Please model this.
Amino acid sequence: MKNIVEIRWHGRGGQGAKTAALLLADVAFQTGKYVQGFPEYGPERMGAPITAYNRISENDIRVHSNIYEPDYVVVVDESLLETVDVTAGLKKEGAVIVNTEKNKEDIIPLLGGYEGRVYVIDARAISIAALGRYFPNSPMLAAIVNVSGVMDRETFMNEMRGSYAHKFASKPEVIEGNMKALEMAFDQVH
Amino acid sequence: MAKRDRLSGNEAVAEALRQINPDVMPAFPITPSTEIPQYFSKYCADGKVDTEFIPVESEHSAMSAAIGAESAGARTVSATSSAGMAYMWEELYLASANRLPLALALVNRALSGPININCDHSDSMGARDAGWIQLYAETNQEAYDNMVQAYRIAEHKDVRLPIMICQDGFITSHAVQNIMLMDDAEVKGFVGEYEPEHSLLKDTMAVGPYSVSNYYMEARRAQMEALRNAKAVVKAVGEEFGELTGRKYGWFEEYCMEDAEVAIVIIGSAAGTAKDAVDRLRKEGKKVGLIKVRMFRPFPGTEIAEALKNVKAVGLMDRTESFNDCCGPLGAEVTAALFRAKKQCEMINWVYGLGGRDVRVEDIEKVFADLYDAVENGTNDTYRYLGVRE
Model:
């Protein structure tokens, strides 16, 4: 892993992109890293485009600006590709991950000529299969961990089980479904 | 034993308050400070603290209730932002004039309009003459540490003034980052029990008296003396805190100032970003430095002027607009301090980051480049906006 990895999340209000960024900060923290996880708030309403950010570093992080040249971009909502330049500043050596049921070949032309790696994942299908409802953030989280390699699979799964146990203390019945969504997403992102 | 954790700035302040376990918290929600009373009221409901939480119907009432509680001898805290603080305005002055050492967790947010929920310092800077002690934070860690130190400063017998613990809205309040937390017992031991010399429930005490012209000025002069005393207390408490935790605090932090030719003076989260800019420029051999102001009230002007005595140019960074057509509040204070110290150099005051406008490392590098240009060529353009579209 590089000394610092910077990740930008694009989603819509209510989809959990901010929560996913905070969860990623959480698990990376558990592996001993310095982390930042923060949202950029625009108009506060369901469905509005939102951006969230992660920095994961071996050293203390002092910078407090948004991320303009990320190593990775995660697109939680495919419809954003029409209106938001999601690959703006994205490093060529990096990658973008898009939540879509389409093939990679159909997505690449929508990415403004981005030359780096492109990954797709059908987070909706995974979420419906694992949880019975559409919550894209868990699958997208597993996808970015796999693609970025910020930690290995076993560590990630162990830490996430702990995080979910804490987060869903009042409804433990959803923990297994979320763990299944993570496993499926880890395998299926391509 | 200190505990390594990761918390947002709001979580960090709520955690400090849980450890402090104040007697009373009246509060009314407003973005981005809402989470502080939200988390804290859960601690109350779960029995983790025995604080009396008062869900008031406005910020005007929040500060009024805080004044009442503190007058009764209860250790009191509230939290707010922006328009919420504006609605406390009258009571801010009453809290300080009545010498009530309550604490306010202020999460800095722009004042309207246009309506904006993001960070700038217009709320607390507008209240700079309200007689409160003001401490600012660069990080979630500093917000937590300042909260832990707050009552030791405010309640000190030579001070007895309210204290504002400020942090940058969203930038630190909603960003999860690493933090070192103290033990509960360590915090309780450091903060100690509140034993007011006088209170309404203990003996007698005048709260909210009328003062004729023959006495008003003496009252204000006495209040000024208390604020002046806060200076030494802030330093002493910051040093004691440093012995306990390894994180020492003073009135301001000097970063790479020993041999600096060009420097900026800045407050809050942008100081962290600016430190990265300083490091980049230092690698290029440029002798740049930074002063981060932690305590804005009382203002350590003499000491800041001393720290700047060798620079050829200084950038004064204000995250608010004063509408006086020449400088912001920090710019005015530092310029006056340098003048009193008979120190002359190039001074440029920048307004930056209004309404949450992002501040990048490159923006601060540009500031330093402009300062070098002023050293070289001089400048009459001493009041500027950073990164604005015109």
In short: The two ends of chain A are 20 Å apart (CA to CA). The domain at 4-188 of chain A is CATH 3.40.920.10 (Pyruvate-ferredoxin Oxidoreductase; domain 3).
